[in-house]
Specification:
single chain; mainly alpha; Helicase, Ruva Protein, domain 3; two-stranded antiparallel sheet; 79% helix; 2% strand; DUF1465; AraC-like_sf
Amino acid sequence: MVSLSQRLVESLYGEALVLAENTRTRFEQVREDASPERLQAVSSGQPPRAHGVDSVEIMCEALRTTTRVMHCLAWLLNYRSWFAGELSAVQLRCHGRLITHFPASDPSIVARLPDDLAGFVRQSERLYERIQRLELALRQDLTEAVGAIARLRERLSYETARHA
């Protein structure tokens, strides 16, 4: 039985906010660092590169990583709303799901990123995996609870029919 506390949600939410800002800022710095190289590369006919990574690869990884963190934030915001009484349990079940098969980062690209940026990518993956494990456990508990209720109803129907 998994118990999701408001304290855990708030802690993960704070972690995700900091990670989102750090990741966005650092990817922006790398993009800006690539700009002079881009101008020089365009004039020489070479593809633009920064830190050994093509700028298109950098932008794709930036989008993938920030989207992953934003999905985590959305999931956490839904649970914050539920704890605050702004969402019902039914609304949370309908709208509070995490994407189950979010595309992973390309390890060959991450390996060529600056160390701190590669660390942010890995942190985003770990955060997503943690939240995904929480969600799977919560869904499993819900499925078991629904199954238990169905068994009780079936037993009640059987006993009622037997004594009628």
